[in-house]
Prior knowledge:
Elements: H1 3-30, H2 34-63, H3 72-81
Helix pairs in contact: 1-2, 1-3
Amino acid sequence: MEGLELICFKIIASVGEARNSLLNAYRHAKRKNVEEAKKCMQEAEEFFNKAHQAHAELITQEANGENISVNLLLVHAEDQLM
Length: 82
């Protein structure tokens, strides 16, 4: 797998995990299990940070003069991150 594709998949996967953790936090909070909800929210933040780090890799590559070709996978990754 090429570099751009790998970074896109890192973003998509990390964001998906973050959303899953947030849904779990909601479920725990609904059951009044506050500590478990907080734990899930912390996990979500860590996953979002991983996604943002992968995104920063792309920005750094482009800033260093590398040509980043915009394709459907990159657009999808960006959309998921938003």
